Amino acid sequence: MAATLNNETWSLTRLCNNIHNSTDAIQSSFQRDGSCLGSPTRAGFGGVFRNSAGFYLSGFSGFIPNSTDILLAELTTIYHGLSKAIEMGVDDLICYSDSLLSINLISANTPRFHIYAVLIQDIKDMLFSCNYSLQHTLREGNQCVDYLAKLGASSDVEIYTHSSPPVDLLPLLRIDASGIFFTRS
């Protein structure tokens, strides 16, 4: 059997090999994310709640057992962040994520058979039912969350609430509060 692409006939073996190679290339490009650490790779997530003046209110971090999927880590962060905001009685919230892919999946019509369709729909439902919005930020502007995601990946706790900031997070919070900007490298 064969397939025709751009007036060129490819065998199914060649087509499958090209798909497999493309998949490997895409997956390897995501393995450098701060949400995955170690060998074997472990996925973690984390988030920070701040008030309108930028002061720390709460944080969370966690480990995703049996997963190295960056997209799952990013979506899990958004899901737990929105859930915690509802728990805390937060009326207005802007959720910042450095995962443009996650934001696009949540903002668009998600394919019914997407591997995370249920999780994405749960996020959409929370956004719809509350006065919450989702915004993109660069990773350089998300260092506190990156720290908590790494903390989550290095733990065995599925979700942990940080009512006060971990000691090693304090310098990052001070840098954020002072308005120091980091350039993209």
Report on the structure:
The chain has 185 residues and is α+β, with helices and mostly antiparallel strands. It folds into 2 domains: 1-30; 36-178, 2-Layer Sandwich (Nucleotidyltransferase, domain 5). Helix content is 42%, strand content 23%. It has 6 helices and 8 strands. The strands form 3 sheets. Strands 3-4-5-8 form a 4-stranded antiparallel β-sheet. The protein has a two-stranded antiparallel ribbon with strand order 1-2.
Q: For the report, how would you describe the main beta sheet?
A: 4 strands, antiparallel
What is the residue-mean pLDDT, rounded to a whole number? Answer: 82
Outline type: globular
Residue share in helix: 40-55%
CATH class of the largest domain: Alpha Beta
CATH architecture of the largest domain: 2-Layer Sandwich
Question: Biggest sheet, strands in spatial order?
Answer: 3-4-5-8
Run of helices and strands? EEHEEEHEHHEHEH
Number of helix segments? 6
Segments where pLDDT lies below 50 for 5+ residues? 22-34
Count of extended strands: 8
- Label the structural class: alpha+beta
- Quaternary status: single chain
Write a concise keyword list for the protein shown above.
185 residues; Nucleotidyltransferase, domain 5; 8 strands; two-stranded antiparallel ribbon; alpha+beta; 6 helices; four-stranded antiparallel β-sheet; 2 domains
